[in-house]
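Input (structure):
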């Protein structure tokens, strides 16, 4: 009976609407992603050694949701440094680039086009600091988007001034995405640096979507009934 009550409470809780948004947390200079992420473009946040700043107000990292992964986006963490600019907000954007498995090269074309922000331009963040650190963007409510398996997504920061923000990157260490900035052509993003893919220090945290949890719970109820 306790198990039945727990499942009913869980299903009820999933129907509660939570105010959307994002909570940023500066965790300091971590030596490991904590907790272990679903996707890490660099094995350790301390690994990337070169800082990249905004070009024409855009900097981004792409990542791909592979088969077998959970699909609900819970949190994104990045390795950063710089003086920041407390007077200029950075807008966080999430773009669905579709299935890039057939791109040349696969998952990391030399350019991609600007598109519709899945967050609708509602998430912004002001960075002001000088120490190298990991910043976590913990999403809440409606902004915890359910992603599509097989699709590549671009996590973009836009609007910041060039030279005051540094997103650390390493080599071409992540097979299913890479780092981009704004091309000289409006609405087009290019590799960073031009001509070769690189990956930014980024961790992606995915969790089960509510529908999946509900199905698991209902499956548990069915099993309990069968056993009784």
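Output (sequence):
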């Amino acid at each position: 009976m306790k198990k039945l009550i727990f499942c009913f409470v869980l299903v009820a809780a999933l129907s509660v609407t939570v105010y959307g948004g994002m909570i940023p947390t500066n965790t300091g200079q971590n030596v490991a992603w904590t907790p272990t992420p679903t996707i890490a473009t660099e094995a350790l946040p301390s690994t990337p050694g070169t800082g990249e700043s905004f070009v024409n107000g855009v900097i981004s990292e792409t990542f791909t949701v592979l088969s077998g992964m959970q699909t609900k986006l819970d949190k994104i963490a990045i390795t950063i440094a710089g003086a920041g600019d407390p007077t200029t907000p950075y807008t966080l954007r999430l773009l669905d680039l579709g299935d890039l498995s057939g791109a040349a090269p696969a998952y990391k074309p030399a350019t991609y086009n600007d598109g519709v922000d899945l967050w609708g331009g509602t998430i912004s963040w002001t960075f002001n600091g000088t120490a190298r650190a990991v910043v976590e963007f913990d999403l809440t409510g409606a902004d915890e988007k359910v992603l599509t398996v097989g699709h590549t997504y671009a996590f973009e920061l836009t609007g910041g001034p060039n030279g005051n923000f540094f997103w650390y990157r390493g080599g071409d260490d992540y097979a299913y995405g890479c780092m981009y900035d704004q091309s000289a052509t409006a609405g087009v993003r290019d590799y960073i640096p031009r001509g070769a893919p690189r990956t930014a220090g980024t961790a992606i945290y995915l969790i089960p979507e509510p529908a999946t949890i509900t199905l698991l719970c209902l499956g548990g109820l069915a099993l309990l009934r069968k056993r009784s």
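Notes: Residues 20-208 form a domain with the Jelly Rolls fold (CATH 2.60.120). The chain is about 15% helix and 30% strand.
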